[in-house]
Design a protein that fits this description.
Elements (H helix, E strand, L loop, with lengths): L10 H7 L18 E6 L4 E3 L3 E3 L1 E9 L5 E6 L5 E8 L4 E8 L2 E7 L8 E8 L8 H33 L3 H8 L4 H5 L1 H6 L4 H4 L15 H11 L4 H20 L7 H19 L11 H26 L1 H19 L18 H18 L2 H5 L2
Protein name: Peptidase M75 family protein
InterPro entries: EfeM/EfeO_iron_uptake (IPR050894), EfeO_Cupredoxin (IPR028096), Imelysin-like (IPR018976), Imelysin-like_EfeO/Algp7 (IPR034981), Imelysin_sf (IPR038352), Iron_uptake_EfeM/EfeO (IPR053377)
Main location: periplasm
Length: 379
């Protein structure tokens, strides 16, 4: 869950735009001149090198010249996310490969990672249509199935959690809380791409926009662990959570998914770990951060494994490094559970600073090569 979200769009606008990607775009090199868009972010500007470019694979060459950590997004007209890159520190550069069809888009920079961002309207035009590697089409289909399976499995677990809240059973609700979030955390970039579901379901108190009501899992987490009581409002919020998760479950199958969005989504999941789980901010009341941490890593690894056959042909050294770093991170996480088949992890408030630093270093060691996966897929 991001600390702060982009603006929420209306359900009607989102539903109207939910058209699954069909057909294929020109493979080509994302590094060719007309497909590279330089994005220079500062504390008060978002400058781009071109406002029109060919549809297909594009590359954002991002440089943060400001004093604040920033994020850069490519957005559909209704604010759904095409691709993003979070946590871009001052004085650093990032490259992001994305796939776009012809149409209107917005590039947004978010200095301080807050608000709607500084926005630039852009357009993708024309673009040659070429046959995509059938293995990538198969990877997209398999990932779409995986995302739907995770949503389908989440709903009954969330209903168990909501039922306990509505019954006023504090202990049962606590026990059901973390398991109800695993499927969501594995596929969070898909849920976030819709724009309007995540702010209702997974927002933290420090991520609320002006006038936004605190709802969802973390509002109930606060009641269970910090307030240590279940109120009538909490019982209403439990029903709202199920309504919103049911909406997510019904819409997952219509999400825009491409090979590059899968690769970038894997990197986003590692960013989620780095900015929320390792710091202990995500589950600040329950301290179940390591459950979310593991689910994020599993989701990232699922995308990677589906894209791996093509990536290995294009960049064998990258795949070797990714295999090594995924294995290292998973081995490290196993230190915090006695049963490798369970999600019964050590409470994160029991994990000391040195161990948190070790976890952070392992996440960073994986995130850096993972940021190159999208480019390897489209070489």
């Amino acid at each position: 869950m991001r600390a702060v979200r982009l603006s929420v769009v209306t359900a009607a606008a989102t539903a109207a735009a939910l058209v699954a990607v069909t057909g294929c775009t020109e493979k080509g090199s994302s590094g060719s001149g007309d497909r590279v868009i330089s994005v220079t972010a500062t504390d008060d500007k978002c400058e781009i090198s071109k406002k029109e470019f060919p549809a297909g694979h594009i590359e954002l060459a991002i440089e943060n010249k400001g004093s604040k950590v920033t994020e850069v997004y490519v957005l559909f007209p209704d604010d759904r996310i095409v691709t993003e890159r979070e946590n871009i520190g001052p004085g650093t550069k990032q490259k992001v490969t994305a796939e776009v069809k012809a149409g209107d888009y917005t590039i947004a920079c978010k200095p301080g990672m807050k608000g709607d961002g500084i926005r630039q309207a852009v357009k993708a035009t024309g673009g040659k249509v070429a046959k995509r590697d059938p293995r990538l089409d198969a990877a997209v289909a398999a990932y779409r199935k995986y995302a739907q399976e995770q949503a389908d499995a989440t709903l009954p677990l969330a209903e168990t959690f909501a039922k306990a809240v509505k019954a006023g059973d504090l202990d049962a609700a606590k026990k059901a809380y973390a398991p109800s979030r695993i499927g969501w955390e594995r596929t969070e970039p898909v849920a976030e791409s819709f724009g309007d579901i995540d702010p209702k379901v997974d927002v933290r108190a420090d991520g609320l926009e002006a006038g936004q009501k605190f709802t969802g899992w973390h509002r109930l987490e606060k009641s269970l662990w910090e307030d240590k009581k279940i109120t009538a409002e909490d019982k209403t919020l439990a029903d709202e959570l199920i309504t919103d998760l049911t909406d997510w479950q019904k819409r997952v199958g219509k999400a825009e998914i491409t090979p590059t969005s899968m690769a970038n989504g894997a990197k986003e999941l590692l960013d989620e770990v780095a900015t929320g789980k390792v710091t202990g901010e995500e589950e600040r009341y329950s301290h179940t951060d390591l459950v979310d941490f593991k689910a994020n890593v599993e989701g990232a690894e699922q995308s990677y494994e589906l894209l791996k056959p093509v990536a290995k042909e294009n960049d064998a050294a990258l795949v070797t490094e990714l295999d090594k770093q995924f294995a290292a991170l998973n081995t490290l996480l196993d230190k915090y559970r006695t049963d490798k088949n369970s999600y019964d992890f050590t409470s994160y408030d029991k994990v000391g600073d040195a161990d948190r630093k070790q976890l952070s270093d392992a996440v960073n060691a994986l995130a850096e090569p993972l940021s190159k996966l999208a480019a390897a897929v489209v070489k």
